Amino acid sequence: MAGDVRTGLRADGVRTWIVVYLKGFCMGAADAVPGVSGGTIALITGIYERLIGAVTAIGPERVLRVVKGVKPSERPDARDAFFEMDGLFLLVLGTGIFTAVATITRALEFTLEHYTVETFGFFFGLIAASALVLYGEVRLDTPGRVAAAIAGFVLAFLISGEAAGNLGGSYLVVLVAGAIAVSAMILPGISGSLLLILLGQYERMVTTLSVFIDSVLAVLTGGDVGRVVEPGIVVVTFVTGAVIGLFTISHVVRWALEHYREATLVFLVSLIVGALRAPIVEVSKEAAWTTEVVLAFAAAGVVGAVAVVLVDRYAADIEY
Questions:
Q1: Considering only CA atoms, which of 47, 16, 73 is closest in space to residue 185?
Q2: Using one digit for the tens of pLDDT, what is the confidence trace for 62-88?
Q3: Domain ranges in the chain?
Q4: What one-character-per-residue DSSP string does 71-129 give?
Q5: Is the sign of the CA dihedral 292, 297, 301, 304 positive or negative?
Q6: What is the pLDDT of residue 10?
Q7: What are the pLDDT digits (tens) for 246-259?
Q8: CA-based Rg of the chain, rounded to a whole angstrom?
């Protein structure tokens, strides 16, 4: 397998890897906002199966073989393990995803602070249209699927209310949020950012990542290293959770999709419906629901819904 991948690597050339990077950028852009998921973009761009295969090929044994590559005698086996995990694909794709997330979160930090109503209205439109589109892909024709739908809706509805705020901002919560968010990134239909909103961690992570990037850039130009520490710990904790999620939650989700596909999809889509409460709760914390606020929220929601519909047009022939 490793030999085949290396042969393909030479044949692909730089242009192919630029395309992979751009696809990763599109995935990151989608997952930076709660609505269309990175998994959906992976489906649209034709890399979903390769992504799932690469992610689930990651395992402790192969990672250990790669780490042992620090010894010259172990480097051939380390290269084999790296290619068995489609490591270069994941590295290039992940770089694209990170670039998009880092770029877009800076803009989102500004809009969340200065245009809170419009931003969450936009999110509401994204979420509502995503739920509507995805419900066309599932069936509620058995008691088990109906139960899954109810469970997904109730869970999301409860979490997206005051319960999300009660979770607090401990490092354990950030760790769990990272694990859950990264598993959602590889799912078609549900956004990692949406789950961060459900857990009450979205605004915090957007702000923290922006502060962390600014602090790192400041250090490179002679700034205070100490400013990196606090946001850096949060970011590292989140990324650690994401890595744990790759080894655990993403495999559980894949197993559920393989064995209980319809019920799992119904549950996931119902999570999206229940999550519609989250943007409303967030706006309620910042402003009273005057006529002006309602109109601004609704107008932004229409823009978000149209965005999802446009994406769905390109994904019309895709089976979730």
A1: 47
A2: 889 999 888 888 889 999 999 988 989
A3: 2-314
A4: SGGGHHHHHHHHHHTTHHHHHHHHHHHHHHHHHHHHHHHHHHHH-HHHHHHHHHHHHHH
A5: positive
A6: 47
A7: 777 767 777 887 88
A8: 20
Torsion angle in degrees (nearest 10) through CA of 309, 126, 247, 150: -100
Give the per-residue pLDDT at 260: 85
pTM of the model: 0.71
Nearest to 164 by CA among 131, 109, 202, 206: 202
The answer to whether 199 and 164 are in contact (CB under 8 A) is yes
**What is the spatial distance between Cα 19 and Cα 22, in angstroms, rounded to a whole number?**
5
What is the spatial distance between Cα 74 and Cα 68, in angstroms, rounded to a whole number?
Answer: 6
Determine contact, residues 119/235, Cβ cutoff 8 Å: no
Question: Rounded to an integer, what distance in angstroms lies between the CA atom of residue 100 and that of residue 107?
Answer: 11
Alpha helix ranges (H) inside the chain: 2-31, 38-44, 48-57, 60-67, 75-84, 87-114, 116-135, 143-158, 164-166, 171-185, 192-198, 202-220, 226-247, 249-259, 261-274, 277-286, 291-314
Query: What Å distances lie between residue 302 and 121, 125, 224, 267, CA to CA?
Result: 8, 6, 44, 25
CB-based contacts of 43: which residues, under 8 Å, 6+ apart? 188, 315, 318, 320
